[in-house]
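User: Here's a structure from my thesis project, written as structure tokens. My advisor, Dr. K., wants to see whether a designed sequence matches the one we expressed. Can you design one independently, without my sequence as a hint?
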């Protein structure tokens, strides 16, 4: 691939991902507002969904947020009925955060609507193309997990 063409493709990719991120923020703001939350609260719930023993410290690691910001976030999620905090039975010093499950059905319905709306885009690609795109996005996500804590620290957030 020629350098000029690659530069143009990469520029278009950056613009497209920035637009996608902007649309995602707007969509998640609307969904979060429905529950009386902010988009950061909602996205932290999403990030934590694969954690079996979530603690405030682990959520701080995942997000790059300060521990005080995570405590405030968990307070909002607890008030909203999304999570509960429990002492770990094996280590009483550790406080685990668990989903209450109270909003799961509504969230599943909302994000099901999103998935349905976006499914037609995936229909335009064959399986090999989808595997390639998925691999690219997974690598972007991994890089984001590595990069975000440093960025947050550098920006003093």
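Assistant: Designed independently from the structure alone:
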């Amino acid at each position: 691939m020629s350098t000029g063409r690659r530069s143009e493709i990469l520029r278009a990719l950056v613009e497209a991902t920035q637009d996608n991120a902007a649309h995602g923020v707007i969509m998640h703001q609307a969904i979060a507002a429905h529950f009386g939350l902010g988009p950061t609260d909602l996205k932290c719930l999403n990030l934590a969904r694969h954690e079996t023993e979530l603690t405030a410290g682990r959520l701080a690691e995942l997000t790059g947020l300060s521990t005080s910001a995570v405590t405030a976030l968990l307070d909002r999620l607890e008030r909203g009925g999304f999570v509960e905090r429990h002492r770990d039975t094996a280590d009483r010093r550790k406080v685990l955060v668990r989903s209450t499950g109270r909003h799961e059905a509504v969230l599943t319905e909302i994000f099901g609507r999103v998935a349905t709306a976006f499914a037609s885009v995936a229909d335009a690609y064959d399986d090999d193309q989808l595997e390639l795109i998925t691999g690219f996005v997974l690598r972007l996500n991994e890089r984001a997990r590595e990069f975000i804590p440093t960025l947050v620290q550098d920006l003093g957030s």
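When you compare it with your expressed construct, this may help: The beta strands are 83-87, 95-99.
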